[in-house]
User: What shape does this take?
Amino acid sequence: MDKNNGNPERLPERILFIDDHPLVLSGLAEMLRGYGCYVATARKLGEAAHLLLAEKNLDMMLLDINLGQENGLDLLENPSPNMPERVIMLSGVMEQEIIFQGFQMGAFGFIPKSVEPDKVISALAALMDKPRLQNSGWVWNHESMEMEDAHTIFPRHTLLTPKEREVFMLMREGKLDKQIAEEMSLSIHTVRVHLRAIKRKRGHNRRFELTY
Assistant: This one.
């Protein structure tokens, strides 16, 4: 931050902001425009995909994960050629599996919606100078009031491997071991090995507790 006027020293010039909540979308977009940023907005994945085709040289995308009946991360599954490097998940979801799934799909950082708007602005400015992290991403730390490596926020011994995370996310959808094995082209034995590892890392013994 610039100590003289309290404004961020560097913010992304061109931003695509996707959020299904109109007050959040308009409020933060107007705040960013007040700092001189160009902000295109969308409330649905279809609108966002259209804007990604039309907008070039985007510096950043702010992406809500829960878009009503849609999953914002679906936008990262087949990224547009105009997708900016810095995709920042801005969401009320704080589950590490979902956050790391976003990083695995190419997201750059994560900011919870509980963060005050002025801190969001500071975080976005800080992210412009951060390098991309391998197998991780930048997450807002409420205690230090800074963006930090996700591995410093979430204990390493609780983190799932990419395969374990995939099993976990399918399990969350209510799929049985056999269905997970078929979808992932794995044996049921391998799926159950992953499930035991998930239970060990999460400290739960019942499948219901793992998914809710």
Remarks:
- Confidence is low (pLDDT under 50) at residues 1-6, 205-212.
